[in-house]
Amino acid sequence: MSNLPLLSLLIWVPIVGAVPVLLAGAGRPNAARWLALLVSVAAFVLSLLALPAYDASSAAMQLVENHPWIETLRVNYHLGADGISLALILLTTFTTILVIVGAWEVIQDKVHQYMAAMLVLEGLMIGVFCAMDALLFYVFFEGMLIPMFIIIGVWGGPRRVYATLKFFIYTFLGSIFMLIGLIYLYFKAGTFDLATLAALPLGMREQTWLFFAFLIAFAIKVPMVPVHTWLPDAHVEAPTGGSVVLAAVMLKVGGYGFLRFSLPIVPDASHAYAWVVIALSLIAIVYIGYVALVQEDMKKLIAYSSVAHMGFVTLGTFIAFMLVRDANDVQMARLGMQGAMVQMISHGFVSGAMFTCIGVMYDRLHTRMIKDYGGLVNVMPWFAAFMVLFAMANCGLPGTSGFVGEFKVILASFAASPWIALFAAFTLIIGAGYTLWLVKRVVWGEVANPHVAEMKDINAREAFVLGAFALGVLVLGVWPWPLTHLMDASIGQLVEKLVLTKV
Amino acid sequence: MLSLNDILTLLPELYLTGAVCMLLLIDVFLKQDQRWVTHWLAILVLAVTGWLVVSGQPATPATAFGGMFVRDGVAEVLKVFALLCSGIVLVLSRPYMRDRELHIGEFYTLILFATLGIMLLVSAGSLLMVYLGLELLTLSSYALVALNRDSSLSSEAAIKYFVLGALASGMLLYGMSMIYGATGTLDLGAIRAASATSAHPTLLLFGLVFLIVGIGFKFGAAPFHMWLPDVYQGAPTAVTTFIGSAPKLAAFGMAYRLLDSGMGGLVVHWQEMLAVLAVLSLAIGNIVAIAQKNLKRMLAYSTISHMGYLFLGLANGTPEGYAAAMFYAICYALMATTSFGIILALARAGFEAEEIADLKGLNQRSPWFAGLMALAMFSLAGVPPLFGFFAKVLVLKAAIDAGMLWLAIVAIVAAIVGLYYYLHVVKVMYFDKPEGEPLSAQVDPSLRLVLSANALALLALGLWWGPLLAWCQRAFAA
Question: A154–B431: do the CB atoms touch at under 8 Å?
Answer without folding.
Answer: yes
